[in-house]
Write a structure and sequence with these properties.
The protein is of the alpha+beta class. The protein has one domain: NADH Oxidase (3-Layer(aba) Sandwich), CATH 3.40.109. InterPro entries: Nitroreductase, Nitroreductase-like. It holds the Pfam family Nitroreductase.
Amino acid sequence: MTIKPLAPDELLTTTRSVRKRLDLTRPVPMDLVRECLEIALQAPSGGNRQGWHWLVVTDAGLRKAIGDYYRRSLRAYYESGTSAGKLFQDDPVRGATQRRVSDSSEYLGEHMGEVPVMVIGCITATGGLPPGNQAGLWGSLLPAAWSYMLAARSRGLGTAWTTLHLAYESEIAELLGIPSDVRQGVLIPTAHYTGDTFRPAARQPLDEVLHLDRW
């Protein structure tokens, strides 16, 4: 597999959530997924525990079942009135962006079960989720998941970060045989992408969110 020669800054600023441009018909070799996960395992984790687990789902029946749960969760999300498309409606620029995000999210929701590979990042949580601040737990998984997405981008794969499946976490855990002391943190649909127009996204100006020494 040819790795795109992307400079670090370009890789970091052009790795986007790919939803509409996932190739739903082209298989993704498991060796390619393994390469990306090997890179993900180099990410930091609290105490170097490396308590993560990576469930790679390729079976058509399991993907369809997860896709069905995901679609149900997405519909509830849209009916709640808090979806991306409802945000910043009074801002013509950001509002238009939010509507595009919402549209692409809806498309992915309808086709999630057709994505050739689903990667579910999990972490051991013996005794259940800790009370109060859980940053230490999830901070030992999510950097590795992002590293996976970066590695996928450089190998011609599109990914998207989503957690909507967690509304049915227990059902999906039973479906996939996930132990009770392992919790799911992220679902990353993975496929070859169509098109090649990745570029940095519009973001809030740094000075609007930067605080020096004090808030």
